[in-house]
Structures are given as structure tokens and as C-alpha cells.
Design goal:
The structure is a single chain. It contains 15 helices and 24 strands. Helix 6 links the parallel strand 10 and strand 11. The N and C termini lie far apart (about 70 Å). It has two domains: about 280 residues, Aldehyde Dehydrogenase, Chain A, domain 1, CATH 3.40.605; about 180 residues, Aldehyde Dehydrogenase, Chain A, domain 2. It is of the alpha/beta class. The chain has a seven-stranded mixed sheet with strand order 16-17-18-15-14-20-21, sandwiched between helices. It has a six-stranded mixed sheet with strand order 11-10-9-12-13-23, with helices on both faces. Strands 7-8-24 form a three-stranded antiparallel sheet. Bound molecules: nicotinamide-adenine-dinucleotide (NAD). Nicotinamide-adenine-dinucleotide binds next to helix 7 and helix 8. It holds the Pfam family Aldedh. Its EC number is 1.2.1.3. This is Aldehyde dehydrogenase. InterPro entries: Ald_DH/histidinol_DH (IPR016161), Ald_DH_C (IPR016163), Ald_DH_CS_CYS (IPR016160), Ald_DH_CS_GLU (IPR029510), Ald_DH_N (IPR016162), Aldehyde_DH_dom (IPR015590).
Length: about 500
């Protein structure tokens, strides 16, 4: 099978790389395997890509190790930064094409995909700026010593990403890892290999030496597992489900005790107090629950509303969901595309059925849109109980539950009654309420009077079973460095 294929997307014709990207070259897998990626909109095959197996992971890790010990180790931090910035420039020049590669195999509305690529470009620029600003400390212990710390790279980092934000997640991991002097092997999600491969072809042009950034398409149970159990990978940064996150941690513990960052799921509360501006709140609640078909780790899928505005709020939300345009991802007005795959579609529909059987009330949606395709109506459940699966589990679809609360204390209790802790939001005009509630919520991010504002400069990550470690901001630099202490004895008697 070829290594490139011309693809005609609705907005652009482009040359799609298909191979494994190792040592700055596209290549076939050693076992000669391929797999087909499918368009969720019409469920037709788009193209087959080459599949990485254990042997390819081994070759990619060797390439990354060779670069780490060799060519990459003599590149100055400042030059690392220039390469990251150049990659951002190259991506910006192809923004619409990269967005098309995301919409094709992921089903995300093109407008949302453009937003995602812009976020990734900003992320590469941000860490390009950080590369020559990572510094240790000089510590004045005593007059006879010179004592300082160095923040050194970890080595070879294995990066494993989910399908819902293929290019944002790639940038959140690759950019800080590279800025701090590591080399990487990234495995894209099997449902969405196209966009990562497109970025791969820009890497050589950006000036990175061979082996510094390697990108593989492949399955979690084969290539992903080979990475997490590998004895020469120093760190795994993983974004995905809680269940697989546990396996990653086991694999790290049972192999070389590689360092691990886990970015897992969520069941984020979106809390609305009666003094909030409800017109504004509607937009944030709608985006929180239904943006990108609800396939967002920090989706505001549990909406908590004060009893004084409960009925009015429900009325407004029902009306707001009707405005969301559902359809072809390449239609510029589309807000909601198809779910990413048949399996995800069926999983979300099963949760809706489960909610109905458990006795919750559906006030909007509750079914598929039309008789074919992977479109699901924005669905709102009320009359829910804590023991219902629709309240406890991350559904990862356009489904939310609305809970009534009587005061701040109860809102905080409901908000924290989950094993997840990725994000939350509070809407109120009262500063005391805003700060008291945000300080009381056990989550890695709390948005006040907005939902979902994520920026490369600000850290993102979970409390509780939403994971550990932080991506983005200066915090992510810590996730890719280790501290070395150096103590030099300058003068005086030898220590007795
Ligand atoms: P998933 O856990 O099924 O897969 C994620 C990645 O792990 C994929 O690349 C997959 O191939 C790989 N994988 C699967 N099994 C593996 C194994 N045994 N060893 C190593 N790798 C393996 O998750 P998904 O369905 O792709 O993504 C959805 C999940 O991701 C949701 O739970 C969502 O909340 C989460 N997510 C979290 C964040 C965050 O920043 N916290 C961001 C996006 C998505």
C-alpha cells in the first residue's frame, strides 16, 4: 500500500500521509498491517493507514533514544524553541487543511476543528517561548559550597492520546515535552489517525532532527500496550478513559516504573445561582453540555440549578437546544455533527434508555435524529437520583442531567458527589458565592461565569479519578523534567 494518497475533502484537496512517521520518514509497518479509518458522517471508509505493531514501537523508541542521546542533546534550548515556533507557522499556513483532516475521521464540525487547530498552534508557540526559559535554582547553603539545580529532560516520552481532540491533545503533549529537551513517540487514537499524520509531514520541514518526534497510528491493545510496557520509555503521558488509565498505571508499575501523567474523564457540574444572567448562562450551559456532541472530557454534563429559577431555567434550556444546527460537519453553520463511531453512538443511546428505565424524566431529546446516521438529539434529563448510571458515569454524548438545589451547601455537596474531579463551573453575580463555591469544589478547573475556556497558558488536569499531573501552562514543564541537584565543595577541610 502507498505511503500517501490524494484526498478530496469538501473544502480542500490534499495529499494525506498514510505511513508510520519514524526518523523523519514515512514508512510501512514491519508486519505489513493496515487499518481503515471511517468517516462518521456517512460511515464510509476514507482511507487505510499503516498500522504500528510491537516491532514498530521498538523501532520508534530506538529512533527517539538515538536522537535523545545524540543529535537532539546538542541542540540549544533556544533552537528547540525556534523549531516549535516554525512548526506553529507551518500549521497556521495549513490551518484549514488540518481542520479538514480532523472533521473527516472525527466528524467534528469544521468550525470546531478550526478552533482546535488554532488552539494547537497557540500551544506550540507558547512552549516555543518557554524552551529557553526553563531554569533551576542557585541555593546558598554555606560559604564553602556551590549548590544548584538543573531541570533536565526525562528522556524518551510515550504520548498516547484520545480521539476527541486529536490535534489539541497532540500539541498539549508534544510541545512541552520537546521544549524541555525530550524526544517523543506519539500514538494517535485508532479512530482518528489522519490529522496527526498530516502534522508529521511538517516536522522535518520545521527543522527537527530525525527521531525527535515519531508518530504512529495503531491500536491501544497492541501499539499502546507496547509503549506502556516498554523498558526504554521514560514517561507515558496518557489521555483517555479511566479504565485504560488504570491499565497504563499497572503497566508502568510492572515494567520500568516509568513516570506517568493521566488525563482521564469527567462528570463536571455546571452550577447556576438565581442571581446569574440567565441569557448568558444559556450559552455556556449549552456549550458545556452539547459542544462537539458532548464528546468532551470536561463536558458540563451535570447541571445544578437553584430551586428559585429551576422551572424558568428548564424552559430556556429546552428552547436553547433547538437552535443548535445538527448535520454535515463541513457545513459552516453546523454546531453538532455525528458521534464519532457506531460503538460510541450505541453506548450513548444505551445510557439514554437506561435513564428512561431508571425513572428519570426526559424534557428534551431522548432519541436519534432521523432514521440513519450517528446523530443524537441533545437530551436533557430531570428527576434524577445519585444512583442512576446517567448521573454517575461519563456518557460522552449530548446528554445532561439537571439537578435542583436549595442553597450553596447543597450545591457543593451535589457537585462533589462524583469520583471524577476534572472541572466545574459556577454562575453567579455574587463574588462571595463565586469564590466560596469554587474553593469548595474538588476539581482541577473551576470556571466562574463561563464554561470550557481552555488556554495553553493555563494548567488543565484532574482531581480524584480524573487523573494526575497537569497539562498546559508552566505546570506542564514539570511533567517533562526531573530535578538534578549539584553540590560543589569549594574550599576548606574535607568533611570528617
Ligand atoms: P480510551 O481510553 O479508549 O483510549 C485512549 C487512547 O489509549 C487511545 O489512543 C487508545 O488506542 C489507547 N489505548 C487503549 N487501550 C490501551 C492500552 N491497553 N494500553 C495503552 N494504550 C491504550 O479513550 P477514548 O475513548 O479514546 O477517549 C475518551 C476518553 O478520553 C474519555 O474518558 C475522555 O474524558 C478522555 N479525555 C480526557 C481528556 C483530559 O484532558 N482529561 C481529554 C480528552 C479526552
Amino acid at each position: 500500500m502507498a505511503l500517501f494518497q490524494e484526498i478530496q475533502a469538501p473544502n480542500v484537496k490534499y495529499n494525506q500521509p498514510l505511513g508510520l512517521f519514524i526518523n523523519n520518514e514515512f514508512m510501512k509497518g514491519i508486519d505489513g498491517k493496515t487499518f481503515v479509518t471511517t468517516n462518521p458522517y456517512d460511515q464510509k471508509p476514507i482511507v487505510a493507514v499503516h498500522e504500528a505493531t510491537e516491532k514498530d514501537v521498538q523501532v520508534a523508541v530506538q529512533a527517539a533514544r538515538g536522537a535523545f542521546e545524540g543529535s537532539w542533546s546538542i541542540v540549544t534550548p533556544s533552537d528547540r524553541g525556534k523549531m516549535l515556533t516554525k512548526l506553529a507557522d507551518l500549521m497556521a499556513a495549513k490551518l484549514e487543511t488540518i481542520a479538514a483532516t480532523i472533521s473527516l475521521d472525527n466528524g467534528k464540525a469544521l468550525s470546531a476543528a478550526m478552533f482546535e487547530v488554532t488552539n494547537a498552534i497557540d500551544c506550540f508557540r507558547y512552549y516555543g517561548g518557554w524552551a529557553d526559559k526553563v531554569v533551576g535554582q542557585t541555593i546558598d547553603t554555606d560559604p564553602a559550597s556551590m549548590t544548584y539545580t538543573r531541570h533536565e529532560p526525562l528522556g524518551v516520552c510515550g504520548l498516547i492520546v484520545a480521539w476527541n481532540l486529536p490535534i489539541s491533545l497532540l500539541s498539549w503533549k508534544v510541545a512541552p515535552a520537546i521544549a524541555t529537551g525530550n524526544t517523543v513517540v506519539l500514538k494517535s487514537a485508532e479512530l482518528t489517525p489522519l490529522s496527526s499524520l498530516y502534522i508529521a509531514q511538517l516536522i522535518k520541514e520545521a527543522g527537527f532532527p530525525a527521531g525527535v518526534i515519531n508518530i504512529l497510528s495503531g491500536f491501544g491493545s497492541i501499539a499502546g500496550k507496547a509503549m506502556t510496557t516498554h523498558m526504554d520509555i521514560d514517561k507515558i503521558s496518557f489521555t483517555g478513559s479511566l479504565a485504560v488509565g488504570r491499565q497504563v498505571l499497572h503497566a508502568a508499575a510492572n515494567s520500568n516504573l516509568k513516570k506517568v501523567t493521566l488525563e482521564l474523564g469527567g462528570k463536571s457540574p455546571n452550577i447556576v445561582f438565581p442571581d446569574a444572567n440567565l441569557d448568558h448562562v444559556m450559552s455556556w450551559v449549552n456549550v458545556g453540555a452539547f459542544f462537539y456532541q458532548g464528546q468532551v472530557c470536561c463536558a458540563g454534563s451535570r447541571i445544578l440549578v437553584h430551586e428559585a429559577i429551576y422551572e424558568r431555567f428548564l424552559d430556556m434550556l429546552k428552547k436553547r437546544t433547538k437552535i443548535n444546527k445538527v448535520g454535515d460537519p463541513f457545513d459552516p453553520d453546523t454546531f453538532q455533527g455525528p458521534q464519532v463511531s457506531v460503538a460510541q453512538f450505541e453506548r450513548v443511546m444505551a445510557y439514554i434508555e437506561d435513564g428512561k428505565k431508571a425513572g428519570a424524566t426526559i424534557i428534551a431529546g431522548g432519541g436519534r435524529i432521523g432514521s440513519e446516521g450517528l446523530f443524537i438529539q441533545p437530551t436533557i434529563f430531570t428527576d434524577v437520583r445519585d444512583d442512576m448510571a446517567i448521573v454517575k458515569d461519563e456518557i460522552f454524548g449530548p446528554v445532561c442531567t439537571v439537578h435542583k438545589f436549595k442553597d450553596e451547601k447543597e450545591a457543593i455537596e451535589i457537585a462533589n458527589s462524583t469520583h471524577y474531579g476534572l472541572a466545574a463551573a459556577v454562575h453567579t453575580a455574587d463574588l462571595n458565592t463565586a469564590f466560596h463555591v469554587s474553593n469548595s469544589i474538588k476539581a482541577g478547573t473551576v470556571w466562574i461565569n463561563n464554561f470550557g475556556l481552555i488556554n495553553p497558558q493555563a494548567p488543565f488536569g484532574g482531581y480524584k479519578q480524573s487523573g494526575f499531573g497537569r497539562e498546559l501552562g508552566s505546570y506542564a514543564l514539570e511533567a517533562y523534567t526531573q530535578v538534578k541537584l549539584v553540590r560543589c565543595w569549594l574550599a576548606g577541610p574535607v568533611f570528617p
